Amino acid sequence: MKLWGGRFAKSTDSVVEDFHSSISFDARLYKQDITGSLAHAQMLADCAIITQDEADQIKRGLLLVLEDIENGRCRFEVEAEDIHMNIEKLLTEKIGGLGKKLHTARSRNDQVAVDTRLWFKAEVAEIFDLLKALEQEIIALAKQHDKTIMPGYTHLQRAQPISFAHHLLAYFNMFARDLE
């Protein structure tokens, strides 16, 4: 049964299910979706929309879902369409109808915005670290080749001789600008 079933008498064709489902690529956002949901549950309690006890139960349930996902004990379903509805389904299986209260005061668009921002924030940090490591490798290689001569180029034509270190450090500076 669909989470948003509506008034349709027949079940949705599997071709339509596959077309509407994004779980095949947004499954990687499970950690960010749960992180956002943990904060949202606390906000609901802080605003007296749900009780603190309900928020605590929801948060415990979300942490159990996270543990199950990370230990390979969950299977995301195409029928649930996306990571948000899959997490909600898994949560309600853990804690019952209380899990549905988590959707109060937010839309799926809100969830997408939070999840992608959290995902990009983590990815940028990883890319930053990788670029810093690449810069260190470039410096090490440049130190080995400060006397290695190569032709410099301008507009795809050979120009004055330069050291290979000079050439490498041009890339170092490009990556340094990227880091800024």
Description:
With 180 residues, the chain is mostly helical. It contains seven helices and two strands. Strands 1-2 form a two-stranded antiparallel ribbon. A hairpin with a 2-residue loop joins strand 1 and strand 2. It is elongated and about 75 Å long.
- Ends distance: 50 Å
**Largest beta-sheet details:** 2 strands, antiparallel
Tell me the β content: 5-15%
Question: What Rg is obtained from the alpha carbons, in whole angstroms?
Answer: 25 Å
Instruction: Catalogue the unreliable spans.
Output: none
Structural class from helices and strands?
Answer: mainly alpha
Strand order across the largest sheet: 1-2
Task: Kindly report the average pLDDT value.
Answer: 91
Global geometry: elongated
Number of helical stretches of at least 4 residues:
7
Q: Please tally the β strands and state the result.
A: 2
Helix % is 55-70%
Instruction: Give helix and strand order, one letter per element, not per position.
Output: HHHHHHEEH
Helix-strand blueprint:
Layout: H1 14-20, H2 23-26, H3 30-46, H4 52-70, H5 83-95, H6 108-144, E1 149-154, E2 157-163, H7 164-179
Antiparallel strand pairs: 1-2
Helix pairs in contact: 3-4, 3-6, 4-5, 6-7
Keywords:
180 residues; 7 helices; 7% strand; mainly alpha
Quick summary of this structure?
This protein is mainly alpha-helical.
